[in-house]
Write a structure and sequence with these properties.
The structure is a single chain. The chain has about 300 residues and is α/β, with parallel strands linked by helices. The chain contains 10 helices and 11 strands. Helices cover about 40% and strands about 15% of the residues. The protein has a 6-stranded parallel β-sheet. Strands 3-2-4 form a 3-stranded parallel β-sheet, with helices on both faces. Strands 9-10 form a two-stranded antiparallel sheet. β5, α7 and β6 form a beta-alpha-beta unit. α1 packs parallel to α10. The structure holds NADPH dihydro-nicotinamide-adenine-dinucleotide phosphate (NDP). The site of NADPH dihydro-nicotinamide-adenine-dinucleotide phosphate has 25 residues, from α10.
Length: about 300
Amino acid sequence: MRRLTAKQGNDMSKAIRIDGKAMAAELSAKITEETAALLQDHGLVPGLAVVIIGEDPASQVYVRNKKRTAEACGFHSVQHSLAEESSQEDVLALIDQLNNDESIHGILVQLPLPDQLDEQTVTQAVAPHKDVDGFHFINIGKLTSGNTADAFVPCTPAGCMVMIEQHLGKDLSGKNAVVIGRSNIVGKPMASLLLQENATVTITHSRTKDLPDVVRQADIVVAAVGRPNMVGGDWIKPGAVVIDVGINRIEVTVDGEPKSKLTGDIDYDAVCEVAAAATPVPGGVGPMTIVMLMSNTLRAARLASGLSVD
Ligand code: NDP
């Protein structure tokens, strides 16, 4: 566990910068080692299939990164790119084929889907034991009921949890946590994970009254909203740990030229004046999300072969 007594970071800020990129690289190296051992000891290669439908440019980048990381970890990595106009039947047929492919242990369908496809039908078609995104109702139910021994936890909240635990330790007894956002892929599973580690959890959303006041009570803040720089420094309790899940593309002017850049949901510099630690965007939660997908795929391969998992 990293202690928060020694402040570090850039000159302007007081908070520790939680370096998701470095943490992800460390975890990825560990997964690569475990994958090599799995091959040597059991002749097993974890297989990840990524399905992308359509041409969404952001999704193309995410899928490319996932494939590249899977290959770097030593996985069997396949990508299925379907046309934008693919029918629900086409997509379900592919998922069925992957569900029955023994060389594939994890299946990820990149979201969002084109309008003609029903997201729930597609995500629920992935076999629960290959659902490395953790979106199947079986995995959600296991997480919510605290039965995570053979469950898959959604990658983004799982990555946030690793970052929080590295700073505060595993047991969050006595800590107040506020999650901003209640989506099924981030906010709700994040709250379940924090609750499981004994934090006292509040989930907030667009209908929450006096949100800054609620956030000011938090020792741990997780912002998953999609509104650039929404969380100001004056929302933060001194010494809080702040995790920024948001990815927002904004227009800025650099040397008189319009440019676009990524920013999170927190006003990073202002938050760092008050918080003990905070994640930057980019270089925070994003890289951890990808590496947790690899961790889930390795776990799926071990479970499929009756091997022990953490
Ligand atoms: P959703 O749009 O599904 O959910 C956003 C949540 O924010 C909703 O619960 C919404 O409330 C809440 N919200 C909206 N406006 C406000 C407001 N003014 N005050 C308080 N709450 C508000 O988004 P996701 O959960 O999918 O993603 C959130 C962000 O995280 C996005 O920027 C996304 O790009 C990013 N993301 C990043 C990932 C990564 O790997 N780093 C992975 C996944 C997402 P309500 O429910 O009432 O509408």
